[in-house]
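Hi W., the 2-acetamido-2-deoxy-beta-D-glucopyranose complex you wanted:
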Amino acid sequence: MWFTLLVSCLLLAPCIHSVQWCYQSQYSCEDSCREPSEWDKDFPDCGGQNQSPINIVTRKARLNPRLTPIIFEGYTQPLNVSVQNLGNTAVLTLPPSLRIRGGDLPTTYQALQLHLHWGVNDGPGSEHTVDGEQYPMELHIVHIKEQYKTLKEAMNDTVGVAVLAFFYEVSTEENQKFDQLIQALGRIPYNGNTSNVTEFQVTDILPSLEKLSSYYRYSGSLTTPGCDEGILWTVFQQPFSISQQQLVNITRQMWFERGKPMVQNFRPVQKLNGRTVYKSTACSCTSSGPVFLCLCLLCILLLIEGIFT
Ligand SMILES: *[C@@H]1O[C@H](CO)[C@@H](O)[C@H](O)[C@H]1NC(C)=O
Ligand SMILES: *[C@@H]1O[C@H](CO)[C@@H](O)[C@H](O)[C@H]1NC(C)=O
Ligand SMILES: *[C@@H]1O[C@H](CO)[C@@H](O)[C@H](O)[C@H]1NC(C)=O
Ligand SMILES: *[C@@H]1O[C@H](CO)[C@@H](O)[C@H](O)[C@H]1NC(C)=O
Ligand SMILES: *[C@@H]1O[C@H](CO)[C@@H](O)[C@H](O)[C@H]1NC(C)=O
Ligand SMILES: [Zn+2]
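Structure:
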């Protein structure tokens, strides 16, 4: 009897004292971790006015002609990189030779890491939503101004950090270029596990760079505690296609820090609080199909008419 009590106390002890943050999918009666709506109790910035992710209402996004295509440097080079299970996602460390500039960014930014947010199988899993649609997965590539060495240092600068966000969608075709990453995730099931990926090309898991001229820009925050604000977000409109089986494999291979399957590791959308979301192009010319082509032609005609009247 006493022994049982003692054992249960010992088992429960770490849980009772745990005030670690967690996602909604990890929260339960036994695990009194802080779920997203309570993050601000330990991390006040999470209750701020400029938080991420957000729902992007395309109709309200304001056209900004300065949002020219981002210039990617070094993104096609094959890399030998490490991948780690952080207990809440998988992170690939990227070398500073990967850089971005242009697109109204104030300077050149260098890559630090990339990581993913996903759902259950091919269910909703992205952090940002577009007109209420939640994609099955979202990739974040975190960059800092090139004069900084660490994220902490860059965070001290109100425009020190720029994150690129890419959506994934389910297609009937398998995208075999993604398999190398899926296999790497399979080698890091538990918190703290690391592995190496050789000859990895970041462009293998992105839509082709020519299709990336349509994007949204707004000022937000990190989507995990401490939720630091002053992050320049670039959310690309064009999703990357992978198969349902590939998504299932991704979401079934890894585990959260305290034992549950790592699924639905996304933060719910936050209030816009009067912020403006900017868009790079007037119409969705990247999306093919007769309807879009018609819309594009209509846009152009209206523009021409506007010029001559
Ligand atoms: C990456 O690793 C492979 C195999 O271990 C090696 O052949 C190659 O030279 C390495 N490439 C770089 C850029 O370090
Ligand atoms: C943050 O910025 C302030 C003022 O510019 C500076 O004094 C401080 O050293 C910076 N902190 C870090 C960690 O870079
Ligand atoms: C995904 O899972 C299926 C079934 O378990 C397996 O046959 C396939 O090889 C896996 N693909 C990858 C890339 O891990
Ligand atoms: C992964 O992490 C678990 C739990 O910490 C550990 O037992 C295991 O040895 C690790 N595996 C590798 C390959 O590092
Ligand atoms: C990954 O590569 C590094 C450097 O090449 C090496 O020190 C480390 O042992 C490798 N890790 C694994 C898990 O293979
Ligand atoms: Zn993220």
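The mean pLDDT is 89.

W.
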